[in-house]
Amino acid sequence: xxxxxxxxxxxxxxxxxxxxxxxxxxxxxxxxxxxxxxxxxxxxxxxxxxxxxxxxxxxxxxxxxxxxxxxxxxxxxxxxxxxxxxxxxxxxxxxxxxxxxxxxxxxxxxxxxxxxxxxxxxxxxxxxxxxxxxxxxxxxxxxxxxxxxxxxxxxxxxxxxxxxxxxxxxxxxxxxxxxxxxxxxxxxxxxxxxxxxxxxxxxxxxxxxxxxxxxxxxxxxxxxxxxxxxxxxxxxxxxxxxxxxxxxxxxxxxxxxxxxxxxxxxxxxxxxxxxxxxxxxxxxxxxxxxxxxxxxxxxxxxxxxxxxxxxxxxxxxxxxxxxxxxxxxxxxxxxxxxxxxxxxxxxxxxxxxxxxxxxxxxxxxxxxxxxxxxxxxxxxxxxxxxxxxxxxxxxxxxxxxxxxxxxxxxxxxxxxxxxxxxxxxxxxxxxxxxxxxxxxxxxxxx
Length: 446
Known about the structure:
Elements: E1 2-3, E2 7-11, H1 25-31, E3 33-39, E4 46-47, E5 52-53, H2 55-67, E6 70-76, H3 79-87, E7 93-99, H4 102-105, E8 108-110, E9 115-117, E10 119-124, E11 141-144, H5 148-157, E12 166-168, H6 173-181, E13 187-191, H7 192-198, E14 205-210, E15 215-222, H8 226-242, H9 244-253, H10 264-273, H11 275-288, H12 293-304, H13 324-329, H14 338-355, H15 364-375, H16 377-389, H17 397-403, H18 410-413, H19 424-442
Parallel strand pairs: 2-6, 3-6, 3-7, 11-12, 11-13
Antiparallel strand pairs: 1-2, 4-5, 7-15, 8-15, 9-15, 10-13, 10-14
Helix pairs in contact: 11-12, 11-14, 12-19, 14-15, 15-16, 15-19
């Protein structure tokens, strides 16, 4: 698999041990590629609508480019797998949102830190409310096995002997946060950057308190890679000095407004004040592409709250939140122009509807197209494959709404071509658009 000829990707594969990966920067340049271990998660590396993205992906790709080589990413299932692979010289480095801990210093080298995070106790609003460490002895607490959270809990256990927790070998931090959100687990522990990303999709998650001092995130290298570490540290120094590092971090964490569940009063005000400015455009292009104008308007509200200058940290922009790749494909020259954006969004949704398999009937066909608009066709096809494996009907929205959330669980996504996806998001996305459209139509907006 290749994206724009820059980055090649191997998911779920292990390459043969080769001592060249602990060699000098000179040999990396001779080889023509930087091999990077990472994990498939929203804070690190994942496939978005039509491209690869993630903070670690972007930083490592940029570093490779500074060396004049390509970046090749190897995705591992867990932090443990990443560190084992690094010990075996299966890659040059790991860029996977890993904390620099004293215990890990025994076996690895670390770059300078590029971000500070804190371990936080995360629960669900309306659920248990632990206020201090001793309160954790009374709740059901789960954390990923072999994680830095386990290291910290073991330290805390020396002072609080009754402290106990469940270590999950099958679930990563993101999956455990989702379990807390679904009320299947009282609380978990997660780094603050992971919490920040996931609260966008699970807004009921709440941080109760921090359990450790801020810790640095850093790239991890084999003990023999001192020359590479020196080069990385110099590169990070230039990134910090130029302000490019802080800009990149802000891209992924300086979020636009978090869209919560339907707030009818806010929506009603938007219908009266904002919608009249764009209604004629929704009607014009819905007629051109054979869509209900209320559907197009509802989708646009879900995407941007009818804000033509909206943008997200992943690079989608405008009133229909088009990606740069999609905009170029549709010959959209200015995503911030509401005329071009609405025309492009209508055309793109119409194309997606036509790409949905013929055995899918309406209205499910439209719901599937909206899900693909949100999550990308690659993940949509993965979900259909998974549905068949689980004995679900891949042509019925009701069944697929149960399958999409599984794309964020490692035991399912690790065997799928496009890997991790925020699987609950397209389900919420479609449901909210249906709500918004229903309100428009019930209110008789013409």
